[in-house]
Q: What sequence folds into this?
């Protein structure tokens, strides 16, 4: 009887041994990586503690946390991070420090950090503010920060942590056609002039950075999902009052904002004006559009 092992069986045993060896190598690599990660985390905690001990003043940053995609984070909660305070620190600075030294999964929007992009609008200590514009020292008594509470904008669906869904806000802005439309486009190099007085009239309305703070603060918008909201109406004001668009386009814009869920839903609470980071007199603009709507509907015969 032959004792020779069939070639196919030999190849199968070799493949099995190779797979086993590969698995062992993979497990060893995974264990080494995990050990490295633990060492790095330990070093990070040690460095963080050293910086906290070296700081003259610290603050407690209480941050809203929520992540529907992670089982342990499906229930909303608050996490508190101790952050070293220094003069000139903003809420955005504190959030970035907490993310970089405690939890890299902490999520919030920010872009240029120059208080003009509007992406980091947050609910800080009970008021809508821009994270990059808000000085920590201004939130405490005598410049002492104490505890800073940071939440996502109210009345908006939370996507994760401090990030809210802005799609509805953008839809409301687009509904007023927020772009210049002229009836008589100049030909060639002819300049389309605007008077100095008219420019001054609409100047403040052009400062809107689409941050959504005013919409979040508005109780009417919270109860009426179809209400255009102060930001969209302000944008309509910017173009309706621009003398270069002409009377027909102004009438068209007035028809848009005179709808049932337009300017007449505003109850003049001034909450939008109070929280606007660009100091736009939103309530005044809405009231002026109401007056324009009344005048356009008056008939004398």
A:
């Amino acid at each position: 009887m032959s004792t020779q092992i069939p070639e196919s069986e030999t190849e199968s045993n070799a493949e099995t041994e190779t797979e086993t060896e590969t698995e062992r190598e993979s497990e060893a690599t995974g264990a080494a990586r995990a050990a490295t990660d633990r060492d790095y985390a330990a070093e990070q905690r040690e460095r963080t503690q050293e910086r906290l001990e070296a700081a003259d003043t610290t603050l407690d940053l209480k941050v809203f946390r929520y992540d529907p995609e992670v089982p342990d984070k499906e229930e909303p909660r608050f996490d508190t991070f101790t952050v070293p305070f220094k003069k000139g620190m903003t809420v955005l600075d504190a959030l970035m420090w907490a993310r970089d030294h405690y939890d890299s999964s902490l999520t919030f929007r920010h872009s240029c950090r120059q208080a003009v992009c509007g992406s980091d609008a947050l609910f800080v200590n009970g008021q809508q503010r821009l994270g990059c514009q808000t000085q920590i020292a201004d939130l405490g008594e005598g410049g002492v920060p104490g505890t800073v509470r940071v939440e996502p904008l109210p009345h908006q669906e939370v996507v994760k942590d401090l990030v809210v869904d802005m799609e509805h806000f953008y839809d409301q802005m687009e509904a007023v056609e927020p772009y210049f439309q002229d009836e008589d486009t100049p030909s060639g190099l002819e300049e389309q002039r605007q008077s100095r007085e008219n420019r001054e009239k609409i100047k403040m309305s052009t400062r809107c950075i689409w941050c959504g703070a005013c919409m979040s603060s508005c109780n009417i918008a919270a109860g009426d999902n179809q209400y255009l909201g102060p930001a969209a109406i302000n944008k309509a004001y910017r173009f309706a009052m621009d003398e270069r668009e002409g009377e027909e386009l102004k009438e068209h814009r007035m028809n848009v904002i005179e709808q049932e869920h337009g300017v007449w839903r505003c109850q003049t609470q001034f909450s939008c004006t109070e929280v606007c980071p660009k100091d736009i007199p939103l309530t005044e603009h809405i009231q002026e559009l109401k007056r324009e709507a009344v005048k356009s509907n008056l008939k004398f015969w």
